[in-house]
Amino acid sequence: MPSSLLRYALAVASILFAAFLLPLNAASGQEPVDTALVLAVDASGSIDPAEFQLQREGIAAAVTSPDLLDVLRFGPHARLAIAYVEWGGPGMAATLVDWMFVSDAESAAAFATAVLSAPRSLQSYNAIGDAITHGQALLGRCPCQAVRQVIDVSGDNPDNRSIVPAPLARDRAIEAGIVINALAILQDSYLGESGRPWLVESYEAQVIGGPGAFVMTANSRRDFERALLDKMILEIATGPKAQSARGRLSLGDLNGR
């Protein structure tokens, strides 16, 4: 083979070899996890400082709960990637705690401490669609390989000021393989056309999507911890333990029924 042709062949071979190795090298720096979870929490002006503190304390308690950690360790990777986002005004969703890995009590406590110590973001009113868009971008930057990708939206009002309306943001996230669940914090007794809480109906129609997506209800800010814990267990449980976790949850907590 002429030397010039040999050099060409070697060059092509090296390019193909590098192209083959690139995905492997990129993936090798990523942690395998069962779920990559974005906690997107309402920090809008409708929440006073005392209520907001209850939310943060509820997140810390839920993440460090022995029940959640027990379910987590039965997953194939026994590891969760989690980030904390606050949302409110149009285009104002902010990542307050970037990706951390939770696999045991120590790492769960580290995430809880990060959430409790983060400054509250400055937000106005209700752009859930932009929160979903922010969550999708954040998932795209997760240093992990996740079996499931979930955006967990909690709030006490519907989407009404998003730059990207919630249904459109939801559909884009679903196309990317992301599941969006919601936690509706009920502040009144108003019912929708189906006879269930109006906010649940709004979140079902505009926010949630993807395989197995659901709305969980919290009857007040003080009920937030219980509802979030149940919701996270449903989101991360896999295998036989998942059935056990689902079995202990009240059907009345799901979808406001």
Structure description:
It is built from nine helices and six strands; from the N terminus they run αβααββααβαβαβαα. It starts with a helix and ends in a 9-residue tail after the last helix. β4 (144-155), α6 (166-175) and β5 form a beta-alpha-beta unit. α2 (49-63) packs parallel to α8 (224-236). 44% of the residues are buried. A six-stranded mixed sheet has the order 3-2-1-4-5-6, with helices on both faces. The radius of gyration is 21 Å and the shape is globular. It is an alpha/beta fold and 257 residues long.
- Class by SSE composition: alpha/beta
How would you sum up the major sheet? 6 strands, mixed
Mean pLDDT: 83
Unreliable runs: 1-28
- End-to-end distance, in Å? 76 Å
How would you spell out the order of helices and strands? HEHHEEHHEHEHEHH
| Estimated radius of gyration | 21 Å
**Into which percentage range does the β-strand content fall?**
15-25%
Strand order of the biggest β-sheet: 3-2-1-4-5-6
Approximate shape: globular
Overall helicity: 40-55%
Counting H and I runs of at least 4 residues, what is the number of helices? 9
Give the number of DSSP strands.
6
